[in-house]
Write a structure and sequence with these properties.
This protein has 347 residues and is of the alpha/beta class. It has 10 helices and 17 strands. The strands form 3 sheets. The protein has an 8-stranded antiparallel β-sheet. Helix 5 (112-123) links the parallel strand 4 and strand 5. The relative contact order is 0.15. The model has no long low-confidence stretch (mean pLDDT 95). Bound molecules: guanosine-5'-triphosphate, magnesium ion and sodium ion. The site of sodium ion has 5 residues, from loops.
């Protein structure tokens, strides 16, 4: 079945985990950016989003010679903060995603925010894989660039491999205490019951092809129904921000459907439902983080899944974390406003 027959949207992948485990840095490595360095105190304080087109995923995974038949148009990746004060943002991220990467620092193992993230993902029934990040910090690690992890392990000394095995067993034991069975992904023959661990380095790149390939394969194989494109708009507000030349805008994640310039939308506001018209639909360039100021592409229409800046009148008091509704030909404005008000009461 070809891509066009299946008509899949891009999966949404949320990156979660303890503070400083390397979530943002992993995305920096894939993007070829330096977002983490620009963060105040090196701490992520907002939800981020980046779109990775299929072509880039193909290029990043070709070292695995997996004939990665990509049936999805790309991957939309959501970055979340690991600092303890941002539980609400982690919760929002875990609600949005089709799949998640739970990042663990291999030198530190399972920590408080690892467990909190795990609980959030389980509560939402979200599928996830675990990245065991910072393998380059194993004493004596030989850098192999973005080689598949099995290749990278082959050139390591006996001592490095022993330390690796020891730390991995320790982490498997820590997850076991949380009631989660885990195994290194290349030894995992029961992917339905056992969560895969992917060793990675966000500094030197080992294991990153494995991580991307696993995400894409897992979503394509097990979530076809969920990922089938539908015209029903599903959209969540992330942030309210001023965009130079466009006034107040909202950053949103469009999980399904299409949004067009000129569409009438209904958004949850602090003083009630906001009814407005999309004036501009902007996206960062592919492989660029939406929360970093930069150049934007302007579109007449955008298909899910994407992260978008929507400029429109009256968005100043929009409430992050709530749904955005688009008026379709069969929709009733009063009914949409009522849905928004109901949601507001539950926020
Ligand atoms: P928060 O978003 O604040 O929770 O942190 P984070 O999980 O996004 O981690 P971040 O990307 O900010 O990385 C934290 C620190 O670890 C930075 O100094 C990174 O340079 C470093 N780091 C991240 N990944 C790696 C890695 O794979 N190897 C090494 N050696 N350092 C890493
Ligand atoms: Mg971060
Ligand atoms: Na950090």
């Amino acid at each position: 079945v070809s891509e066009s027959d299946k008509n899949l949207r891009s999966p949404i992948c949320c990156v979660m985990g303890h503070v400083d485990s390397g979530k943002t840095k992993l995305l920096d490595f894939i993007r070829g950016t330096n977002v983490q360095k620009g963060e105040a105190g090196g701490i992520t304080q907002q939800i981020g989003a980046t779109y990775f087109p299929a072509g880039k995923l193909r290029e990043m995974t070709k070292g695995l010679k997996a004939d990665a038949r990509l049936e999805v148009p790309g991957l939309l990746v959501i970055d979340t903060p690991g600092h303890q004060s941002f539980t609400n943002l982690r919760s929002r991220g875990s609600n949005l995603c089709d799949i998640a990467i739970l990042v663990v620092d291999i030198m530190h193992g399972v920590k408080d925010r690892t467990i909190e993230s795990l609980d959030l993902l389980r509560r939402n029934g979200a599928d996830f894989i675990v990245a065991l990040n910072k393998v380059d910090r194993l004493y004596g690690w030989k850098t192999c660039g973005n080689a598949p992890i099995v290749e990278a392990m082959k050139v390591q000394s006996r001592d490095v491999r022993d330390e690796f095995e020891r730390r991995v067993s320790g982490i498997i034991g820590q997850f076991e205490k949380q009631g989660l069975s885990t195994e290194l992904y290349y030894k995992n023959y029961d992917v339905r019951e056992v969560t895969s661990l992917v060793p990675t380095s966000a500094m030197t790149g080992e294991g990153i092809p494995d991580l991307l390939l696993l995400l894409v394969q897992r979503t394509q194989r097990t979530m076809v129904e969920k990922l089938t494109f539908s015209n029903q708009v599903r959209c969540t507000v992330l942030e309210v921000k001023v965009v130079e030349g466009h006034g107040t805008a909202i950053d949103v994640v469009l999980a399904n459907g299409v949004l067009r310039e000129g569409d009438q939308i209904v958004v949850c506001g602090q003083q009630g439902a906001i009814v407005t018209t999309i004036r501009a639909l902007l996206t960062p360039y592919p492989m660029r983080e939406i929360r970093v100021k930069g150049a934007y592409q302007q579109h007449k229409e955008i298909r899910a899944a994407q992260c978008i800046k929507i400029a429109a009148h009256g968005l100043e008091h929009a409430i992050p974390g709530t749904c955005l509704y688009a008026m379709g030909p069969d929709d009733n404005l009063e009914a949409l406003k009522n849905s928004v008000m109901e949601e507001m009461e539950s926020v």
